Every structure is written in structure tokens, then in C-alpha cells.
UniProtKB/TrEMBL annotation, chain A:
Keywords: Cytoplasm, Nucleus. One of its GO terms (biological process) is RNA polymerase II transcription initiation surveillance. Belongs to the metallo-beta-lactamase superfamily. RNA-metabolizing metallo-beta-lactamase-like family. INTS9 subfamily. Residues 305-433 form the Beta-Casp domain. Residues 549-573 are annotated as: Disordered. It comes from the Eukaryota. Pfam families: Beta-Casp, IntS9_C, Lactamase_B_6. This is Integrator complex subunit 9. GO terms for cellular component: cytosol; INTAC complex; integrator complex. SUPFAM superfamilies: Metallo-hydrolase/oxidoreductase.
Automatic annotation (TrEMBL), chain B:
Residues 15-232 form the Metallo-beta-lactamase domain. The keyword Iron-sulfur does not apply. It holds the Pfam family IntS11_C. This is Integrator complex subunit 11. It comes from Anser cygnoides (Swan goose).
Amino acid sequence: MKLYCLSGHPTLPCNVLKFKSTTIMLDCGLDMTSTLNFLPLPLVQSPRLSKLPGWVLKDGSTFLDKELKECSGHVFVDSVPEFCLPETELLDLSTVDVILISNYHCMMALPYITEYTGFTGTVYATEPTVQIGRLLMEELVNSIERVPKAQSASMWKNKEVQRLLPAPLKDAVEVSMWRKCYTMPEVNAALSKIQLVGYSQKIELFGAVQVTPLSSGYALGSSNWIIQSHYEKVSYVSGSSLLTTHPQPMDQASLKNSDVLILTGLTQIPTANPDGMVGEFCSNLAMTVRNGGNVLVPCYPSGVIYDLLECLYQYIDSAGLSNVPFYFISPVANSSLEFSQIFAEWLCHNKQTKVYLPEPPFPHAELIQTNKLKHYPSIHGDFSNDFKQPCVVFTGHPSLRFGDVVHFMELWGKSSLNTVIFTEPDFSYLDALAPYQPLAMKCVYCPIDTRLNFIQVSKLLKEVQPLHVVCPEQYTQPPPTQSHRTDLMIDCQPPPMSYRRAEVLTLPYKRRYEKIEIMPELADSLVPLEIKPGISLATVSAVLHTKDNKHVLQLPPKPPQPPASKKRKRVSEDVPECKPLKPLLSGSIPVEQFVQTLEKHGFSDVKVEDTAKGHIVLLQEAETLIQIEEDSTHIICDNDEPLRVKLRDLVLKFLQKF
Amino acid sequence: AENEQVSPLQNLDVGRSCILVSIAGKNVMLDCGMHMGYNDDRRFPDFSYITQNGRLTDFLDCVIISHFHLDHCGALPYFSEMVGYDGPIYMTHPTKAICPILLEDYRKITVDKKGETNFFTSQMIKDCMKKVVAVHLHQTVQVDEELEIKAYYAGHVLGAAMFQIKVGCESVVYTGDYNMTPDRHLGAAWIDKCRPDLLITESTYATTIRDSKRCRERDFLKKVHETVERGGKVLIPVFALGRAQELCILLETFWERMNLKAPIYFSTGLTEKANHYYKLFITWTNQKIRKTFVQRNMFEFKHIKAFDRAFADNPGPMVVFATPGMLHAGQSLQIFRKWAGNEKNMVIMPGYCVQGTVGHKILSGQRKLEMEGRQIVSSPKWLLIDKACAFHLLLLQLEVKMQVEYMSFSAHADAKGIMQLIRQAEPRNVLLVHGEAKKMEFLKQKIEQEFHVSCYMPANGETTTIFTNPSIPVDISLGLLKRETAIGLLPDVKKPKLMHGTLIMKDNSFRLVSPEQALKELGLAEHQLRFTCRVHIQDPRKEHETVLRVYNHLKGVLKDYSVQHLPDGSITVESILIQATAHSEDQGTKVLLVSWTYQDEELGSYLTSLLKKGLPQSTS
């Protein structure tokens, strides 16, 4: 059992598990933090961005000033943003049999894998994961494609050149592997390879392995996976939550008795309490609006936004915000809001009960109905007519590098009345803001990450008791900025095995048994013998058939009867074809009874001599000698086959066969 | 051999479904239906049949409900709250959502309107639903350690499911009602090749191979259109959920296309509510509706409006969808009474009607109906025939002049569909329920001919026993398996390789290990049985020359065996040892000592008989 680690990002994993002749990719996360090195893509011509000075090397050479621009002391690549792909060289990805997706954030690299590597397998994911994943990809492609950027910078990637650049560009890893965004046809092709699955559905892979998605409590349709054979169980835990938000609660019980538990996707902000952050979000929002300012919330079009809207639904009247318009701007805003209402079966109990009434599970339906929440595909079109300030805008992308959010940053950044509130934890907010500096607008950081924290992890591990834990190396040491916080790491016994990008781990396991089926006809022919109380044995001689990794034992075929007319005289001429194995023997021979038996069978001249280890039984006339010891019997005789066979059978009567 | 028992509590004829299955010691009740044709105790299944006097909870491991139609779930509150059952009840999410609403609706009609007693209460419906566990499609639900169930999509109505019930390697599939062709709002039933020991399938349309759906729809639209054109009123009695939505989509698109103005109504609040369920459970509808729902939700109708009682007397044409579907009570019956006397009007029965209902009567051609009524209807068409009735029960005769049309829109599989499902699932036995005896007999023959499987059709209360012959799963030690698969890399059909092992049976666990391991585990020593045979050979040559001759001879004969001549002068054939000594008295005779263990018995025995025949004369 081997684990190939293709991504170094702990919350956007991409691992490949080789297990019992199957090759299973676990998630397909796309590291988008690479985009922070690029300049934002403005929707309308931005004089500020276009006037940024080109970057000049210390020695005054200007050959990079077209590709790199400087803004408030930071250097950015002026090009279409690129993403850091999972490793594609560590193993031949065309050999991957299946890809298991745990949640919609962890499938963003899927088109790169399924469309570029010769992948011919199947992808498994739940319906909400696929639908919302599609929306995220659509939004991503849309926000990049709608701003055609002629320039595609590549000179800076040259190793010799990169060395000369300032941090963080200098330290960016694998820049040669960075890729531009995929296209919609590629997204569609990738998604067409997905097969939908439901929680607790058992999916057989080649008869060798069974995989099962379990509710992970983190997002709509998010799952952990069990990968097991009859004797081994690997749990893949990725992006799980024990908080009660909108999704179905996490299924912990099914993770028990794992041989190996692969643990990824823990909270990225282990020190922040999501509930407290939501409270801060609401109060900052209210304060800004009351003072006449606008609020910008950079966000993904699905996920936490549903919870935020629900909180606001309860909060706006009491906070006197009833007349403030809330705008949700995304090419997939409408779809996301609609889709959230139809996945009743994937929601927490309270929301499910609402659907039974029947009422929409999320209150944003009411916000839309009462015109408090309005959604638009983009800032162009209807939105520009309806736009009233002060207002609250939810829009993407949280990296602030593309999407409608770029426009609002440019529009509102100069006024200290306005506030941008960061709720998504995927990007450092300071890095995100860097190309907009200097800024007058207020910045509030309320990261809401509902995934497991280290206290919950240690409780979970105590509960489910895996034999071995495997996790990204980041989880085995305190965060670099808080090196004294030894509580912010995984603590378990035996200590976890850690992995980093491009590493191959050999996972410990001991497999001793395999399942085999005994056909009913064979089972009927077996003769069990009780050896000890409660323990019976039966010797089995059977034909083994193996097909599709399933083993079956059948009755051996009856030897073909030689035709009666063609009686062959010289049977012994035939060399025995195959060696029919004889059973092992056990037990010992009681000499007295043996002698009595011999006499009963017509041997009259039996003589017994004692030896140091046992006895010698002599049949004088037959010139035969039988040495009997505790664990052995030796028959020494003339070449008299009938006699030998007779003696053999008499001896066998006293022994047990195995 | 183990067996499975199936006892349909009530099923022959499409009255209601309630089937008891015993599989490998587990008892499962499939559906818990009510008979709509009866108004007395006969409407509920006879549960005393299950346990003569024991508690149902102790006897049954679980109850499974296939879909929300009352002939499949109508007796559930009676069963769980009045007879008494506290175990788990499984159904899909949409069924769990909709079923209590239909139950409550039916309770209202029966108790509040008809004044019947000995019926379940609203509270009982609520308490009953608390025992329900909702299941996802394809989710494997572990009822207990041995019993697992899995739901498959069945089409038919929103949330309808087929269920696989599995214990060890024995399994039963129960279809409930299903539809193998997708329609305007639902997809087609689908099951994988799960090879159950028994497939229990409904057979409502056992002999029908229905003409194309498109023709039926065109016919339906034509009739509605003609009636409306001549100023008539069309009554379509429907179940609140199911065909109602299908026909609404059909009429809505037709009205849109033809730009028709006559009003279409949907009776009672229940049906409006019903459309909400379809919107929220859109993932259970067909692919097309699911794909386009963001742009346009098919269950938001432009032309179809809520019905008000007073509208029935409005002049001019109209189309009304009214519940219930069999014209046995409620609004559809009220409207029917009002409109029946006018030959311009039309009633279209889009589904099956149970015997005893008004729907069934008019479909079988009856045009003079005796109705019981509590109020005197002022319409001159009513004819009072029995004034003398002491119970103030008025028997009215109603003459039906309106046109009566039957169009099978109910989404059951037809004979073709049933055969198709059998082909998909590949069952070893088939059992037909929920159909009419004669038609089932025909289908039974067809199934047996085409699939060569046994097909059963038990009567009510009759028990069918099906014998299964499951193979036995065993744990084989990997060492033994690898040893065997390593030897037999190239399987030879003609010479099958025998594998030898010892099966250890302990506390219901079965393990197959190598004999050596079995001995070791049991703490037993091996007993070695060895044979040494003296074989006399006439050969005047020197001992080592004789040995060489023997060696050459054996090597020539035993081509597939490892024959070796060792430096100490002995010969081995595999693990059999041959040594030569001179005869103590006769120098011309050599004695070969052939020694082997019991494990080499065949080869040892063969060697002695081979050597006994002497050496060939000419050995070079």
C-alpha cells in the first residue's frame, strides 16, 4: 500500500493511493494561492493599475518591466493569473483507475487531470458536490475569460531570472508547472466523467476494493471516504466539520476500526472560533452601513455565504438594516441560490424538516422574495440600474485577483467609510490586498473556517482509534507564525506519518487473509471433524477459480471414467500426471491396539520390541518392520504393494488428517 | 440449503400491498397498504396473521414503504399505533415528506366527513412518522449487523423506490410500483445487475403492452380540446401527487402552444402544496427538468389555477383536476355528481380504479349509479328511490350522461417493462404481486419461458417458500492463496489444479489455512508416515553401474519430474529417496530401497511398481 502525495497544500489535497491492485486518486485540489503573485484583472480599464511602474532590477536593467509591475513595494506579474497544479510527474496519471472527490473545493484541478494526462477512469462524487463544483468552475472560467489579457508573461519563470526577483516571487515553487485556467469545454468533459454517488453507497472497484462516501458535515454533499477490502480499511478524512451549520452532520462512527486514517483539510485558522467570527462580521457590517459606508464581502458563490445570509436574515431587522440592499453578484449567483434549496436530503435535520412542510430550507428564499437580497450575473446590465448605496455586496473571487470584486475594490478602496470583510480563509488577506495599496477603506478579517480544529481532531482520533494516522507535514508541527503553540498540531500515538509534496509513503499494513467463496456443492461434500470442543476441521481439496479478483473454490471435476470396453492393462505405465496432495497427519499410534488390529486382520506372527523412543512391530513372515514413535511411523517392507497398502490403511485409521 | 419465505398479506388484485418476507432468519414487511374499495375493517391488512399473539416489534426486523400511494402506506398508522409496532420504518425522503399529508387528508375524509370511528387520529400519524428513517437512493442502510437494505429509483411517483433486502449473500428485491419509461416529469426505474435470489415485482399491467406514450398523449389532448371547444367541462380525477403533475405539464404546454383560454383548475390546497414538493425534491424528477429548473421550474404553472367550489357551477368550458382519483369520495366525486348529467361534459380517468369505487363502476360501463348521500341534492337529475330507509340513508340514483374516457396514464411498468427489469436484475426467482390473477398467469409463463427462472404468484395469505443455495464465504490465509495462485499462473482447463487446505470452524467463523498452519494453530505435531520398500532387480553389474542405469531409466520416463543423482550414490525423484545395495546372498541381484512419505504416496507407489518391472535391456 503506497501513498503518492501530489499536492503540498493541506486543505487542497491531491493524493494517490495504491491499494490491492487499484490506483485511487483522493481529491483533486487546485492551489490558487499562486494567483496572489499576479496583478488583478480589472473589469473596466483601471487607470491606477495601468500606470503602475515596471519593475527594475537593482542593476538598473529593465528587461522585465513589461512582465513585472511594482505596487507599494510589492512586485506582481502582469499576466493572466496561473494556478499551481498537483504533481503530474510522480506517477503515470493515466494509470489512475478512479478519483474520489470529497467536496466541491477539492475538485478544482479535475479538468487538468482528466483532460491532460490520458486518464480513462471514473470520478466519483455526490450530486451537490458536482453541481456546486460546476458552479465554482463556471465562475472561475467566466471571470478569467471575460477579461481578455493579451499578455502572457513567461520570462520571469526562467530559473536564472526568478533567482533575481524579490520575495515571494523568488521563492514561488514549481513555477514552470503553473498553468492558465482551463476552458468550459474542458470543464464539461471533466464533469462528464463523474458518476454520482450517495452517502453510505458501497461502490465495488474491480471486485477488489469497496469505496464508500460518508457525510463529512463541512459542505453540501461533502464526504469522507472509506476504502476497504474485506480485511483492510483506509479512511480518507478531508474537510470535515463538527459544527452544526447547514450540511448533514459528520458520520464519525463509520470511521472506526481503520488501519490507516489519512487526515487532510483541517481548519486553516485554528485559533479563530467560527461563531465569534460570524458575530464580528455582523457587527462590522452594521457599523459600516450605519455610518453610510458600503460593505464588500469577497466570497465563493456557495458554502459559507448561505450561513452568512441566514445570520443576516435573523439580524437585519433588529439591527435596523431592513432598507439596506444586499447584492450577490456572480455569474452563478442565481444557480447557487436555487441549487441550495433542492438538496434537502443533504441538509441538517432542521432544514430537512422545513422541506417536509414544504418550505424552502434556506431563508434566503424569503430575502429574495422581499427584495432584500438581489442577485446579478455581473456588474454590467441590470445591476448598474438598481445599484444603490450604501449597500452590502457579496462577490468573488476571494483572492481579489479576478471577478467582480476587483471592480468594487477599485471603486470603494479610496474611502474610509467603506469596509471590506474577509470571511474566506483560503487566502492571506494582506497578500490579497497588496496590489490595491495604499487603501483608505477599512479591512476586517473574520475568517470563517468550520473545518476540524486540533482539539476536535484529537477527540475524533480517540473516538475512532485508527492504527495509523497519515497527514500533511504542516499538521505535525505548530504553525510557523506561532511556534510556541504546540497545541496546534496533531497529537496521537503512534505519532502520525507525515507527507509533503512529491513524496511517496509506504503505508504500514499487515494483511493475512482474503475472502474466498466455497460453492455449495463443495461445502456439502466436506466432512467436519470436531478436534477440540467448539473447533471443527475439514480438509478441503478443491479447484481454485479466480475471476475479477474474486476467488471461488469448486468441487474438483470427477476423473473421466475410462470406457469399460477399453480396459487398460498397464495402468502403471501412466506417469501420475499431477500430484494430488495428501493431507498432513497428526496423532500417535497406540501400540497395543495397533497390534490387536493387525491380528484381527490376519497377521498371526506379530512381535513387538521396545526401543529408546518407541516400539518396533515385526511381522516375521512378511519380513516387515514397523517403527512406531510418538510423531512418526516407518513401514519397511518388501515390494509387496497389497501388503503395504493394507498396512498403510491400518496405520491411517489411528491418525487424524489435515 | 436455506430458504426465503414470502407471504403476501394482501396483494392479489390491485387493492393494496403488504408483503411479509422472511430471509435468512430476518422478517421484513414490504409496504403497508390500505384497500380503497372497502369502508370497514377489511380495508386494513390482517396483521394478526403475522404473529398469532406475539408483539409485532419482536417479530419484524423492519418495515419498508416503497412510495406514498395509500394502497402502499395507508395502513401504516393503524399498523404502528393501533396494532403496535415500534421498530424502524424505512422510506425515501420525498415519501417521508408526502406520505403523512396524504394520510391526514384521507383521515379527514373518512373520519371528519363520513364520521367513521375506529380510524387512526392525526396524532397517531405524527407518532407513526417519528418511527420513519429516511434513506437516500443507493445508500446501503445497515438495519442491524446482518440485514442491509438499499433503495433504487423506481419512477412511478415522486420518491418511489425499489428496495434490495440483503442478509449475507441472500437477497430479495421488491419493486413496489415502478415505471420503465421516463415521462414528462420522472425518470425511468433502474437497477443494477444485483442478481437477487428473488425479485418481487408488481404486475398491474401484466398483459398490457401499451401503445406509445406519444399517441396516448395526443389522444388525451384531442379529447380535452374537443370538449372544451364545444363548451363542455372536463373532469380529471387524480391522486394529488403523481399523474396530476404529469398531466398538468402536458396541458400547460398544450395551452401555451395552442393559445387556449379556457381555465384549467387544480382542486384543493393539497395539490398546490404538492407542486411545492416537486420543486423542492427536483433531484428526483427527470434529467431534463433537473437541468433546466434554474431557468424555469416546470412545476410553476401559468395556466393552471387553484379551484374553488363555486367554480363548478360557472357556465362555459373548463378543465378541472380533482382528487381523489378513483371517484370514491371528496371533491372529484362532488364535481362528478354535478357534471355527470350533461352529455357535453367529459370525465377522463387517467389511472386504475379499484373495484367498488365509482370510478371502477363507470369504467366498466355502468351508467346508472346508486349513490349514498347525506344531503339531498337539489339537482333535478337526482332521483330519490328509497324514502323509507330508516337510517336516513338516502340512496340516490345518478344517471351518467357525460362521456367517460379511460386513459392509462398511471406510471406502472407494462409487460415489456417488467421483462426489461428482470433482464436488468437477473433474479434467480420471480414472484408476481399486485395484479389480476389471470393476467399474472400469462406473464408467469412468459417469464419462465424467456428467463428459465421459477416464477410464483401466491394468493393472499399464502406463503411461498423459495430455496436458495448460497455459497459460503470463508477467510483464506493469504499465504495459502498466494502459494496456490503462484503455482497456477497459467490455468489449464484440462488439468485443473487442486488446492489443498484445512478449514477451521470456530465460533461461526470459517478460515481456510494450509494444513501446516492448522496443525500449528491447534498445537498439534505432525505425524510422519514413511514407507521404505525393498525392490529386487536382476543386474549383475556393479552397484554404481546399476544405480546409473536406474537413474537413466527414471530420467527417461519421468520427464516432468526432478530426478537427481547425488554424489553419495543415491537417487532422488522429487523428495523420494532411492538407494541401492547388493543382495547379501545373490551378487546378481541388487536391492533398491525406495523411501517416501505419505505425502508422496502416489509417486512412491508408482516408482516401486515401475522398478519392479526391471530395467530396460538396452540402456546406453
